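Summary for the funding panel

The consortium committed to producing paired sequence-structure records for every protein in the target list. Below we show the first two records in order, beginning with the earlier of the two.
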Amino acid sequence: MNEDNTVTDDMKRQAAMFYNSTEREILREYSNETSWRFWRKRRLVVALLAFFGFFNVYALRVNLSVAVVAMTEPIEHVLDNGTIVYAPEFDWSSQTKGLVLSSFFYGYIVTQLPGGWLAAKIGGNRMFAIGVGATSLLTLFTPPLAHTSTALLIAVRVVEGLFEGVTYPCIHAIWSRWAPSDERARLATFAFSGSYVGTVVSMPICSLLAHYTGWPGIFYVFGIIGLVYTTIWWLVVKESPEKDSHITAAELKYIQDSRGTQAVEGSKIRHPWRAMLTSGPVWAIVMAHFSENWGFYTLLTFLPTFMQDVFKFETSQTGWLSAVPYLAMAIVLQVAGHMADWLLRMRIMTRSNIRKLFNCGAFLAQTIFMVAAAYATSILGCIVCLTIAVGLGGFAWSGFSVNHLDIAPPHASVLMGLSNTIATLPGIVSPPLAGSIVTDKTAEQWRIVFFISSAIYLIGAIVYYIFCSAERQPWVVEFDNDASFDTDAASVTTARGVDNKALDSSEI
């Protein structure tokens, strides 16, 4: 009997040695093939396509901010009797202009929570494609509807907001399955930076399109680009790494070990609504998201108009100058994401303190530079202050924007839906508020708009510092693991049929 046990133990040791050597060979092959070929790492492919997704999302969102300047500036008209007069194509008051610009957010706010819930149920990848694709299609119909009536223009913008509202919650459903825990900040901020690159690129392009093709060209160009992108996303991005037939065995094991095994089937997810809605860390995220969006949406919507009112810039120039702060934001986001993950990996600070440092530090700096911009007497000084203020917001995104994944990964899409619902209110409130304040288009009136943004940044910093946490919350619901994706037995079978039993994820 003892002899049989000895033989069995020897066989187990030999089998373990075989599996270990096989998996280390897989790892060496994986490392050699993907050291510079980032496309062989599927999580980076997902991040890259998510980046271009948010690029399109914001290009489709900000196009009206530039187009409305061209739509309402005086142009030459020749009357039947030969008289030349100058009148705008759309003679809107500042209040009507504010309503047109904010109409998108009336739809956008409605689908945040439903979008997060649906993403958890049917897959964030599918909902993201539907959101971007439908918004792109509706964008193509914007010019003819605008020529028909202002009411129809407002209506189509509301419907665009309904579809685009699902995009932010959806991406957290994707990251909850694709992002290793120590890469959340860099992957999420890289994807989110597409929003600001989209703003940077689309604003000057919109100005050029308005100048050379007329303002309708803005909507046609970006609508077509969005539809092409949607097709690519639908074909490439899968709901989870377990469902991606092109992922390597090593990368799959690395993601699962870092992320932890979770149910892939959406039908198993049950959200603890009462606990989530009474959680201090959740409301810290909500307040931070609201504060960042107030300043961002105010500038995103009115910066071209501000340049025209205060510094008398023409339409073709406002797009270029308005894009500068968002270029800074896109760059800072990359630095901030890698820095946050580096601090976490080196154990220099706790995860909670990293989130507080990045978020509160950014908000305090934004408070100072928004006030400075309000008192700037030159276009150069104003742009420098706004660039620093908006750019430093990139650090805040390495705080609150990934905090959902820290405290409750299985519920991250719903939590993002909740925070983005509240954070959409600035898009609804700030444009009409600014429109009612800036009635005479003076620098003093615009100064009040900047003061309001600064005060909200300061309040957001205080609330987030007091209530923030980056620890997994006790109310997080654990699910029964799907046997086909079980990693508890240190064994995962991928589509390639490789059983990588003892893969060391720290080497990837």
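The next record, for a separate protein in the list, is shown here:
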Amino acid sequence: MSDIRKRTIGDTSPETRDVSDDQKEDVESEDDAKLEVEELAKAIPQGTDHTPHILNSALSGLSDRWRNWVIRSIFTLFMIVGFCGIIYIGPLALMATTLVVQVKCFQEIINIGYAVYRIHGLPWFRSLSWYFLITSNYFFYGENLMDYFAVVINRTEYLRVLVTYHRFISFCLYIVGFVWFVLSLVKKYYMKQFSLFAWTHVALLIVVTQSYLIIQNIFEGLIWFIVPVSMIVINDVMAYMFGFFFGKTPLIKLSPKKTWEGFIGGGISTVLLGLLVSYIMCQYRYFVCPIEYSEALGRMTMDCEPSSLFQPQEYILPNSLQVVWKMFSGKSTITLYPFLLHSLSMSVFSSVIGPFGGFFASGFKRAFKIKDFGDVIPGHGGIMDRFDCQYLMATFVNVYISSFIQTASPQKLLQQVYNLKPEQQLQLFQTLKDSLQNRGLLNVY
């Protein structure tokens, strides 16, 4: 027994020695590849305040604090005007803008991982990241097309195949990327490559999934997109204004410049101005009508009879509020659009929870010691710096609609009907016809 133990302990066979050397080499290589955060930050594109030379010259006499305030104010105004222009063009422009913003945000997040890729010479990271972006967009945007344009797509023979097997095709595309990643694995860098693989998927979850939800919100009516976006913008602007002029009490360590004064002032402003924006939009069909494809017109249309959600309703106030209201109006009831009540819920979320999207992004940037995700917008940083809260808000609105507002869509039901066999479609038609006749909703000739 002792001889066996000695041989085991002292075994220096080539096989054992090779395994030990390989494991040691792997560990040493990983340790050598780990850079300090400060060193890694040097390789990451840093956000800088790129300001036009003319504007820099005009503001040269101001202190850094006031110079930054003026620059942020000017470009905030430009973005708001540009946003209004896109709304005026129509829903297709909004969808295209959403896609462009999505791609730019993904690029800014992936650039940080790309810095690691370049440092260690890892293969295919950038190509794989963009491949997965295209694949996920094919899946999500295909789902939207099938939900809202199924009737048109099914009329085209070659597109019908894409509709029928859409999810299977999407899965196959993903599997190609998965196999590609496995084949790209390099000895000594397994841990780093799997970390970057997870990095890409988290970026897709944050950016692509949320933009898909934004498109769904747009199809429910522009008001479900414009109002939440406006609330985030109002909260961001007013929180900055209140913090700039009155801020003294730090709010959270992740963002030292955020103050309680800005948080509270921005929240109150968001509720009040959000209700005002909602009240104005409720009066226009362009904003409240769902976006649907009209077979008669052969295009998308937003012409409808507004639902009860966007028509004034009379509400009886609680006894505690009737006394106060009678002093101003002489009535114990109040007339308002029901959407305003839902708008109140969205404004509270955007004021209280919305900023945490910004705090999350601040923590992410601090982890890599970068100032901004990019330098596209002077005074603001990158696109992701401006849309970090928007994605969180878009998810809330989509969940809110599906939970409290949305009913079964005729377009989605038709899509399911078209997937049935012809004899099943005829059976469904006859059953529905008999039901409508029995209820007196269909005249029999």
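Regarding this second record: The first strand starts at residue 250 and ends at 252. The two ends are 100 Å apart (CA to CA).
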